[in-house]
Structures are given as structure tokens and as C-alpha cells.
What we know:
Radius of gyration: 26 Å
Number of helices: 25
Distance between the termini: 40 Å
Helix content: 40-55%
Largest sheet: 6 strands, mixed
Amino acid sequence: MEPALPSRWPTSLVLFAVVALGYTAWRAPGDLVWDDTPTVLANLYSAPSGPVISFADPNFLRSMWREDFGAVHVDGYRPLSWAVRRVSLAFQARSAWAPAGFLALNAVLAGLLAVALFWLARRFTQTTAGALFSVFLLLASTPILTGFLVLFTGIQALVPLAMCAALNCYFASVDSKRPRFWLLWMGLLLFVAPLYREFAGIAPLLILFLEIQMRRWRSGAAFLSALAFAHALFPTALPHYLFFPDLAVAPVYQLGALGAQARAGIELNAPFLTRIWQAALTLKWRIFLDLVSILPPTLFLLALGGWAATALHHRTPAIPWRPTAFLVFFFLLTFLPFLKVFKEQVHLAYCLVPASILLAASVEALWREAAAVRWAPRLLVAGLVLIVVSDHALNPFIVRAATRDCYAAIGRVTATCTREMPEGSILLSNAHHAADVCLLVRGRFALNYTVMSSGRIDLFIDNPAALYALRKSAGDKRIFCLDVSLPRRRGQPGGDRMHWIVRDRPVELRDLGAIDRVSYRYAFIDPIKMLLPIRNTPWPGSPDLEYDYYRGPALDGAPFVREVAASYHLFEIVGAKTIFEEATDGPPVPTNKADPSGIDRKTASEE
Length: 607
């Protein structure tokens, strides 16, 4: 592994400027999208007195400390994430310029991520071009791009940035004659990052692996990493003993959503072998094809060609075995957990850090082998690399255009709802982005969902009894149904998220007609992508919204074209009783909406 040299600073500064400015131009003007919109909607319009979270609150900092650092939330113990969300919501409530500030913050993070990955990758590649290629593979991937659409409700880039920065600090401590400065920063990153996302807790294991490789396991870095891993494994222990005695102490895999997902499908009282078998049955093997789909498939063939060529000609690996072992270990730590807890392709952004380095270095080895022989192999490799680069370079344009088309349709749907629905009405929808509609109308409508969304079980109307209770509490308020339907459901993550009131007609509905549709078509270049199943088609929009839209091959069958599509239909619930009311003619039977796990109860297709 080549040490990082000061001569890389000019390249790093240029890379930071290009990525930060490029992100700003790409994401401008900074309009909010899901996942930011439902949190802003709830903060600004759920209380008649004004924003729930605001800098005007004299207890703002005290509430942050008690409610964010002193409690386990539905998604686990992520106090820094919730604190950032709280501060961002307060800024959003205070200033119309807040989105511009979030945009600038994310631009800086994008630039820092590019530089951190470049310095890390340069230790495993033979050339600067190879390291820059790995940066391109990561930043132009759909998981990273779609994650960067979200401005503050979970800044995804912070996790890979923290991991890359901690590893760079470790390598700098090894290279430096005065390692304490770098070890201090490494330790700070290792201890703080898991408080934002528990997944960052794998970074100490990576450094321990490197220490063992270098036979330095008695060093200060190993000691710090061991302590940091214990902290990441029991993140509530220190806060419990120092500040919050009522805060539960438990392993990270038993806290919140992570714990619920890890236990899903497994009988805790079953024999050990039975639990192992149940765990194997619940693994999501499709993520192997998801990994191939978010990077050009031809890239994997080129990488395999690099290993085959170097083995055939020199009897050596494409990358020396020690760096290869580290990158493979890094990849497995960031990839294998999602066999169990995977929900969306955006989560694969973490494993793309080692994967991009490994693939870039492997292709670099193939290029060296091709450059040493006749023109025909060089031309073939150059052509395949051109296919990979051209196909991958389309992603930023596709994600930007798909998001704009989807939100343009949301804007038109909002205009129709504003015209048809009087203020104070209730909107029932089966789409996540109904929250975007309600935010655009500044909370003029109350929002409920007919499928689980936003983790808000209190907004979930899932049966006639719940609908009866809603109608009874609504009084004279009019209730409308916004049905977002997919042109095809086969292979779609949200294929079973139908609007059950529209489907089952438990009440009389007045049909206001099809009010809009969205159809965004885009091209791809890599021919191997045509062989991938529809289920593994990358989603080019804001995370979670993949459950609201069709995404797959073009609906008209055009080759090398994919499509994002959905249609909108509006109904109003009128006079007649529900099926439940006719059957019982009395109060509803209470429905158990309590979920002991405290997490978003998503449908089977989402899991």
C-alpha cells in the first residue's frame, strides 16, 4: 500500500472544488424532497400554535439533550442524527433560506467525501487516474446520488466520509513520526460516528484488521479501536452511566429498527439450529443482483479480466494479497449485514466504498496488461471501459431529471387538490409523497395513509373500523382519496401498496377522475443491464419513493430505455356507511396499532 504523499494536495483541492461546485449545480435550487418533507410538514403544521421545534423555544437545547441523547428512538440510538434533524427543522421554521444552507453543507460534505475516498483509494491503486476512477464510481452511483437528494433527515454521506477519514487518519499515524495527532482525530471519529449511524461502528474493526495485518495489535491504534468498537456495540452504555440512568443499556443490534429487523422471522425461544435455519430463510439474496445493477455490469467483467490477465501472464494477483484481503474484509463487513436488514438500494452506498476501490484497481491492472500487448486487446479494453464510463456518467443526469419530473407532477397534483378540496379536508393516500402535496399546500389538508408510511402508525388507516373512526372524528370535514397507481406491478417494491379503499370500495366514492400522471424515460448503454430482473432496476429518485412508482424497462418495450411511471386518481368519500358500520351499526372494534418494535411497519414487498 503506497503512502499518501503531500503532492496529492493539489489534486485533492481541485477535486474538492469540482465535486462541491458540481453538486451545488446538480442539486440546486435545493427544493426539499422526501425524506425531508414529512418531517418539515409535521413540524410546521401538526400543531395549531406553530412549529413544534423552534429556536424560539426556551427549552430547545434542554429538549435536544434529553430527547435526542437521552432516549432510544424508533430507528435505534442515533442521537447526533436526531440532533442534526432538530436543528435543521428549527432553521427551516425560521428562515426561507434554510434549504440553501443545507445545500451548501451537503456540497462541502460531497467534496470532503470525494477527497477522503481519493486519499484512501490512492493507497491501493498504481496511479492517480485509478484512484479518481474509484471516486467516479462511488459518487456517480445511484445510491450515493439519491442519498444526496435528502438534505438533512439523515445525511447519508457522513457514514462513508467518517469511515474513509478514520482510515486515512490511521494510515497517516502509521506514516508519521508524530502519530499522536492523527490518532487523536482517528479516535474522535471512531467514537463519534456511531452516534450518528450505528453502521459507522465497523470502522474500528477495519483498523484492528489492519493492525493484525501489520502485527501491531499492541499499539495505541489497536487500543483505541478496541475501545471504540465496544462503544459502538453498546452505544447507550456511556450515556447511561454518565448522564441518563434511565437509558436502557443493550447491544446495538437489539435497539430500535435494527433489533427488530435482526429478529424478524426468528423464534427467539426456538432451538439454536432452528433459529439458524430461520435466519437463513429470511436472508435477502437479491442484493447480489442489486449490487450488480447499481454499477455497470460490464465493470465486473473488466475487473475479473484484470485478475485473469495478471494471473495468466505473471502468476500474480491484480492487487497484492494483503491489500486485497483488507478490501474484501471491508466489503464483507459493509455488505453482508444487508442480507438481513436490507430494504432499499440506497443502503448499498456503504459497501460501494471498498467495492469501488477494488473494482478500479482491478480494471487498472487489466489496462496495464492490455497496454503491454498489441493494439487489438487495447482497443477492446478501451471500448469496454468507454461503455462503463458512459453508462455510469448518465446517472447524475437521470437522477436529477427523474426527480424533477416526479416533483413537477406532484406540483400539478397539488394544484388539482387545492382546487377540488376545501381547506380542512382530509387526504387519504397510498403514497409516501402525499406528504409533499400537503407541504406544498402549507398544511391546508390533514393527511392519513392507507399504507404504512413515515413510520407514523398514528396516521395509518388500514381497515374499515379505522376508516369509520376517522369519519366519525372528522365531523363535517370532507375526506378525499388520492390513489397513486403503477402501470405494472410485477417486480415492483411497492407492487402491493394499493389504495385499499379505492380497491375494495367499503364506502361510496365520487370519482373525480384521473388527474395526472408521470412518465420519465431514460436511456442506458451497458447491454448487460437488459438481462437484469425488473426487481433489481436501480431507483433514480428520492429514497423510499421507489415504493410509489413503477421503475423498470420502458412500458412500450423500447430497447435500452427504462421508465419511471405512476398515475394519480382522485376520489371523494360520500354519504354511505362503511361495510363495517353496516355490519355492526356500532362503535368500531379497537385495532391494535401498537408495534412492540416501535418501527415503521412496512409491507412484505418492502422487506
